[in-house]
Amino acid sequence: MRVTVSRTVLAALAAGLLCGTAQAADPSGIWLTETGTSRVRIAPCGSGFCGTIVSAPGKGLDAKNPDPALRTRSVVGVQILSAPQGDGAGFSGTLYNPNDGKTYSGSLKLTSANTLEVAGCVMSVFCKRQTWTRVK
To answer: Is the pTM of this model over 0.90?
Structure first.
């Protein structure tokens, strides 16, 4: 009886830890970019996450988009992040930067409940990192 209770308690604790870890790794929410001027909603998308701009300063046009037909659209509503692959420490995929109109390989890593490290890289060598803060 004593062994059964101990195993049951250990199993319950282990399940609780696993659930807590899974939730801690979930970057879903609204994030304020490092500059403090834009907000991005990150939500589940397939097996990973996607990010869409929900607010931007000024006119917020996609003026540097490589497609001339898209240069007059608002960046609000544009998906800038696709991170379909979990790698244990975070998620990897692509990031679109409307400031220069380029798409980079990128990654997301939740460093705390309210802090997200976002990295965009060229040739996986030259990377720029930003720290985003959770708003919601």
So the answer is: no
